[in-house]
Amino acid sequence: MLSRVAERIYWLGRYMERSENIARLVNVNSNLLLDLPAGVRVGWGSLIDISGTGSYFECDTQLADEKTVVNFILADKKNPASLINSLSFARENSRITRETMPMEAWELINDLYHYIRDRADKVTSRRDRSIILLHVISSVQQFTGLLAGCMSHNNAYDLIRIGRNLERADMSTRIVDAGLVNLLPHLSAGGTEVLEPYDNILWMSVLRSLSAYQMYRQHVRDRVNANAVVTFLLQNEDFPRAVAHCLKQLEQCLWALPNSEKVLASIVNIQHKLDEADLDELLKSGLHEYIDELQLEIGNLHFKIAETWFLPVVMAQSQEQKSA
């Protein structure tokens, strides 16, 4: 397989997963409006922080309203990580590499892109938004199932899975890092503290943003609380959107690819860091810094993958010398 084809397939997996994650985040934040009392304001600016697109957002995230944030995250073409751009990039990558996958996969992505493009002006309407986002989520899941059942499980399939699981691990750490503090402002409009009484509602929204609530209840025989949720979403190896599970999937995929020793070593280091973490202690102080380090190491995995399989040998050697 040519390196440029491999890179496009890898990014196809990332952009499709990113599209689903964006849809989940906005949909769950919208549903918070129904779960919380009228005096509690939902912090829409936190979605900008979670997605890491603050440098492209022209307003103060603390003052951002629902309409502005939703349009920016879903339909703004100036935002490289918006839903419409993610689907556009996925469509272009799948168009160029469509001979490597079932034709139905290309058709599904193409249809989904046009579906969003034709409805971009409706995303600020809560009623229309919910229908649109649920369609995105179900379509990406259909794409994942289609490849699992109808695509040869070869190197191309492994590259899509690598992109998907790397993107998923990154988003899961971002959502945990945001936690309840970033989901809502500290104070209500009247100036009274509002976070503590709704602690379980806020952590439930974190779980639901990853469709993790029911699986969490199966694994944890306790009320929804910060310690148990963070432990479940970071260290559980059975739940597909937990960071530990994503790393295990990455490891399995990489074993099938040539010259994967350096990337595998990096994954093993992250797994050790995750396994040995005392999350109960970190929640008292230092969780944010710990997750920042985890995100940096997950981000560095992308560069190691690119150096190993996507960049020309001379350029990869130059990059390695710079990082040494």
Question: Key terms for this structure?
Answer:
single chain, 324 residues, mainly alpha, 71% helix, globular, disordered C terminus, DUF403, Alpha-E superfamily protein, ATP-dep_Glu-Cys_Ligase-2
Overall description:
The chain is an all-alpha fold. It contains 15 helices and no strands. It has helices at 3-35, 45-51, 66-75, 83-96, 103-118, 126-150, 155-183, 199-209, 213-219, 226-235, 243-255, 261-275, 279-284, 287-310, 313-323.
Unreliable runs: 183-194, 313-324
Q: Which geometry do the CA atoms define? A: globular
Question: How much strand?
Answer: under 5%
Instruction: Please give the alpha-carbon distance between the first and last residues.
Output: 29 Å
How many strands?
Answer: 0
> Class by helix and strand content?
mainly alpha
Round the Cα radius of gyration to an integer and report it: 20 Å
Portion of residues within helices: over 70%
- Total DSSP helices: 15
The residue-averaged pLDDT reads 86
